[in-house]
Amino acid sequence: MTDWYYVQGSERVGPVDDQALASLLHAGTLNKESYIWKKGFDNWKHFRDVSEVAHLLNPPKPAAAPKMPDPVYTRPTVDWNRLDSNDRLFHIKIGLDRGGDETEYGPFTLNELKRAFDEQRINGKTFIFTSGMDNWMFLADIPVYQKFFAELPPVIDEIDRRVSVRKPFVARLLFHDDSVVYEGICRDISVGGLQILVSNFPAKLGDEITLNVHPDNTDYCFVATGLVVRVLDGNQGFSMRFKKLTNEAREAIETYLANS
Question: Are 178 and 222 within one domain?
Answer without folding.
Answer: yes
